[in-house]
Design goal:
The chain has an 8-stranded antiparallel barrel. The protein is built from 1 helix and 8 strands; from the N terminus they run αββββββββ. By secondary structure, the chain is mainly beta. The chain has a domain at 42-123 and 154-193 and 227-264 and 279-292: Porin.
Amino acid sequence: MRKMILAVSALAISTMSASAADLAVKARPLPPPPLPVWSWTGFYVGGHLGAGWSRNEFSEGRLGQEFAPQDFALGTGLGSHNGLGPLGGFQVGYNWQIPNGPFLFGVEGDFSFADLRGDHQNSSSAAAAVTFGCFENSFSCSAFNLLNAQERFSSKVKDTATITARIGVTSGPQDRTLWYVKGGAAWAKTDFADSATFSDVACVTVVLNSACAAANSSLFSSGSTSRWGWTVGTGVEWALWDNWSTKIEYDFLKFDGHDVTLQGRFDDGDFFRRTVRVDQQIHQLKIGLNYRFNWGKSPVVASY
């Protein structure tokens, strides 16, 4: 009887141990599924809308001395103005995000249709006096001339474009936020115009007799220029869903001084040509929407 009790006890202990081992194995938790990871790698196209502000500074150019060469010297300031207006266009580019890392490199080209308008008025005057001999040098004669000009310079930035390299950093594998900086070449097409009125007073003195005459005239001249410069910018882009993302971006475009030829006619039909020098910069604020293709996309593991 004693031996039977011991055998039953040993069997019960063995059974309980096996059950406990089974329970311990079954209680192990399964690993959680991997979190979805957003990758910025791929080609993309998109569009943008926004506003622009231009700054245009005018000075005399190489051929800007028709009326009074001694006073209107090369580089003489002719005033400045700001232009403001809407813009909109499209962009295309490619991003490559370092696998398993937050850093991104890319290239982008964009084109904007713009309507940035501005103008300013500039007043100038020039005087000249000459003394000379007349009547076979028996008497002293003199001549005096005074020219006053009222000019209104205007500008309209019509198109802009940039070709840039981009460097960015993402805020995390699941937080779909990208901050980037960009820089490269810029292009702009701008129309310029000058509407002016002139008043000219000329006096001639012979001995003690003087005679004066006044004349008024007006003209309109215009010209257009396409100019290459440089640009820098920065922006933030947010992934929305699937392959879509939206962004807000600021760009600064700079175009160093360049000559613009203005051509037109006086009110009497005479031809007029003038060259002014313009130093221009453009600021752009854009909101855009991009669609990214999966071409060239490589898998990204959430390890950072």
